[in-house]
Amino acid sequence: GLWDIEYYSDKIIGKEVPDKVIKNIEIFSLVTGLDIKILDDGNFGNKWGIKIDNKIITYSDTFKGVSAYNIANYLNAKNKKKLTYIDLGSGIGSDVIKVEKLIKSPTRILLIDIPLNLTTAFAYVSMNTGKKCVLIESEEDLEFYLKKDFTDNEFLFIPSIFVEKIPKTLDEIDLMFNSGSFSEMDYDTIKFYMDNLMRNGPVQALFEINSNKSFINTSEHNELLSNSFPIPENFKLIKRNNSIDSEDRYIENLYVKNI
Question: What pTM was estimated for this model as a whole?
Answer without folding.
Answer: 0.91
